[in-house]
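Subject: complex prediction, re-run

Hi both,

The earlier run crashed halfway through, so I resubmitted it with identical inputs.
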Amino acid sequence: MTDPLSLTFSALADPTRRAILARLAQGQASVGELAAPYDMSLAAVSKHIKVLENAGLISREKDAQYRYCKLQAGPLQDLDGWVGAYRELWRDNLDQLDVYLADMQRGDDTNKQ
Amino acid sequence: MTDPLSLTFSALADPTRRAILARLAQGQASVGELAAPYDMSLAAVSKHIKVLENAGLISREKDAQYRYCKLQAGPLQDLDGWVGAYRELWRDNLDQLDVYLADMQRGDDTNKQ
DNA sequence: CAAGTTATTAACTTAATGGTTGAATAGCAT
DNA sequence: ATGCTATTCAACCATTAAGTTAATAACTTG
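This time it finished cleanly. Structure:
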């Protein structure tokens, strides 16, 4: 699970981390500011932030004893690209075509991999 | 981590499971067919499939001793909606605005929460 | 310098994840 | 009925993850 996309998905698979991202979408914030809303130790939030940073979803800028976190869109763009490949699945009732292809597949094995 | 979105992200945070989804995007397949490409026990793939099913990303239809898996778009649509909320971040160089807002915030505290 | 603030690190606990092997279940075919 | 095929379940192991508290580091200010 070392690939970037897995890292991104994994980082986002936690409501606290997604909430932190949402907060950062409206501007940078220090670790303490980010931690304030949560009933959780500062160390725990610090860990969450590190997970986000390791996934490239945020960057940090040091200013005195504060570390200001800033959202980085790159991984989200990649994620958008990934889900984009599936977007056609729910457009134009492609479900019907899906079933058709599946039947073909079972019948003649052409698409087997 | 019981909310649906976390479940979806978590299920997708594994390359094998994403590959299984990609395979299913071109039509339904049995567990054995899905397992074939992987150097992994069938039981392991079976577990992966169960994770995808629990996340609602696939459904299963029983036919004789085969379980045919089929991709379900719902959770992917939700995910698309989630990432969509961030799409503006990388359009129109909104980064500049981001920095501006951040400076405002540190200066006058107006946006603190 | 001493004291307070901010954040990270270390050590630990508990629970979840991803894999294994082997047995069990269910359906099909001889 | 017997055996083959397909799939799951159970028990187990190793690793990772999420949280805790306590200690440490880095900086500011009186």
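Residues 106-113 of chain A have pLDDT under 50 and may be disordered.

- K.
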